Amino acid sequence: xxxxxxxxxxxxxxxxxxxxxxxxxxxxxxxxxxxxxxxxxxxxxxxxxxxxxxxxxxxxxxxxxxxxxxxxxxxxxxxxxxxxxxxxxxxxxxxxxxxxxxxxxxxxxxxxxxxxxxxxxxxxxxxxxxxxxxxxxxxxxxxxxxxxxxxxxxxxxxxxxxxxxxxxxxxxxxxxxxxxxxxxxxxxxxxxxxxxxxxxxxxxxxxxxxxxxxxxxxxxxxxxxxxxxxxxxxxxxxxxxxxxxxxxxxxxxxxxxxxxxxxxxxxxxxxxxxxxxxxxxxxxxxxxxxxxxxxxxxxxxxxxxxxxxxxxxxxxxxxxxxxxxxxxxxxxxxxxxxxxxxxxxxxxxxxxxxxxxxxxxxxxxxxxxxxxxxxxxxxxxxxxxxxxxxxxxxxxxxxxxxxxxxxxxxxxxxxxxxxxxxxxxxxxxxxxxxxxxxxxxxxxxxxxxxxxxxxxxxxxxxxxxxxxxxxxxxxxxxxxxxxxxxxxx
DNA sequence: TGAAATGTTGGGGCG
DNA sequence: ACGCCCCAACATTTC
Length: 489
Known about the structure:
The protein is mainly alpha-helical.
């Protein structure tokens, strides 16, 4: 009886372009797929409730796909190291394949596992795949890591992107399957209360859903992506953006697949090339985030630009907690911000432009530390990704790599008027002010009283007054940022 | 992948 | 006819 190879699945819940699976399967011996839910290893960054919701359906979808090949995935909870060693010894496994993952805790886990397995004479093969290039590979001419996005992008596009591997057409069956949990055991989806209605409406987790999303993006949205990506219009519908982020995060599709598909489409149809150029740049931002967290493992906790360590954030207080809560619940009194936070709460996702506006508001108008926003996003986002989340929060608040300058403070009114000119987005997510005409949809507090009376809207009662005055908040933020000038970089 | 303040220009109304 | 003022519209700079 041949002993099987274990393919330890992590954020690579797919069959196509899965290098670990592909290489293991080439060996011609039975392949045992294993997923371990290990909250301990992830520590602070254990999956949030929304990610867990996604995970449930992503695994379910994977199971369905595997069943078509007569296979399945073993589910276990607990310490990854213990589980893998237990199963390996039980079945006499000599070789394990997995995808490399680059979160600091995941790298640590990989290292520990590697050592432990060595003691038992078991080999751990970590394959690349979740990124276009292994972080650490791209560096400047003098061998340093990139601090700025544009040169990083140049280096990235100058390098060949690997060709995706096909999904295996058959897997050797393994009959002596070890004990497995069921998805139900893990209680990943909410029962009472069931808060996931909006998520179900918005998403189809899993590899099939990911491929559908990519295809519909390439067909329907890519041509105008460079223009429409900044406009958060239609809720739930195929948006002007790709909405691939959660699929990419869970590895239901790889950036390499997206990259080549976009390149191919642009070559076939030149009218799509301008939009697709921008799409590729967005994939590169994702890479850049991983590049940053690879070289700065404290990125989720500490400002990249160290002079921000002593930045005068608003100290914890009752006022600050109240403001944070208003922001989280979408009750700041600024329609575009409230719409964004409510979209996040309902669907587990927020449009990119709105993420920037909302993050700028939290860190600059409210002077609340970016980590607080990061934590909220971590728990609410279906695409919660340690690298992107921390790099982006730092970017917005001015302390990140190649960050937005500190004085770039979004005016939530102007941003709303610019990118949600007809108020479609705001009206959907903030229905209590939906009847207000366009002219005042982003400034309901300026709407003439007789109109508000007509619509039965009471600003300060049925919809909040702005929790801070824009001008005052802006001046306060600029003042707070003043000290950075005198500090050495 | 800003916004606001400040500076400049040029057309039109007007004496 | 001409200068003056007003103020968009656009450009520059400052935060």
